[in-house]
Amino acid sequence: MTARKLAGFAFRGLHLTFLGLIIVHFALDLGYPWWWNFLPLVLAYAILIAARILGGTPDSPRTDREPVEVGPPVTGRWTALNSPADRTPSHGTHAYGQTYAIDIVAEPEPGARPSFRWLWPLARRNSDFPAFGAPLLAVADATVVRATDGQRDHLSRTSLPGILYLMLLEGSVRGLLGVGRVVGNHLILDLGDGTHALYAHVRRGSLAVREGDRVHAGQLLGQCGNSGNSSEPHVHFQLMDGPDPDTARGIPFTWSGIGVPRNNEAFEAPTAASQPA
User: Fold this and answer.
1) Which residues pair with 259 in a beta bridge?
2) pLDDT digits over 28-80, tens only?
3) Predicted structure pTM score
4) What Cα–Cα distance (Å) separates residue 265 from each residue in 81, 102, 127, 235, 276?
5) Are 106 and 129 in contact (CB under 8 A)?
6) DSSP string, 51-101
7) Half-sphere exposure of 22 (CA within 13 A, CB side)
8) Angle at 242 between CA 146 and CA 271, to 5 degrees
9) In the chain, which end has fewer C-beta atoms inside a 10 angstrom radius, N or C?
10) CA atoms 214, 74, 82, 185: torsion sign
């Protein structure tokens, strides 16, 4: 385990300790000054700063790599969100190898995907979204190095109260619990040459492959879901330079025949010849 990963565990553990002390302080009179509760928080950020100083800037992207051309991870008509074609880091952070990550939502025809609502409905069922259950395809010949699909698919957060809940509460808790709770059910493929592909928010129980399997470009891997830190069923895809999102750095990609679609740009991904009928 790398020093950076250990620092991440310590950072999250000290945050949880801080929250526990706050709860205990209000529930019980332990007779110590209130500001002592903040010592774990101070130590957590001291560890984070020290790790970044001693380890350089591990979150910086792989600027020495040209975009890696791979096939699209889906088929059919989709729309891009949070695209690296518009800005990097595309999700506002280099953490978890997300520098060049992209989100895509299925829209087989305009208006097929439910739109954002200010107040009501607060949430929607996953079956209301055409992305839910859509097949996920291998973007290249590869080896499966991580495959997990045990987390539940929660309701959408596509209203203003839902988004605020996701950003202010749920997302913060997931961040403290670690990358596995952020990406939800996920797959990581080793494409060779130091390149790994991550598919996040996979549907619970949908994986068609296991760790160690050898897969071929266009092969069915699983289904799009709504697990982890996700506002609605969608595919989060990224390339990175290692199998562990905690320590990996992002690598730019381009999809064969498509390129990198911009935000709100609809694109058509062709049916892969090797995809099972």
Assistant:
1) 255
2) 666 666 656 667 657 765 765 665 555 544 455 555 678 999 999 999 999 99
3) 0.80
4) 8, 12, 23, 15, 28
5) yes
6) HHHHH--TTS--TTSPPEEE--SS-EEEEEES-TTT-SSTTS--GGG-TT-
7) 10
8) 60
9) C
10) negative
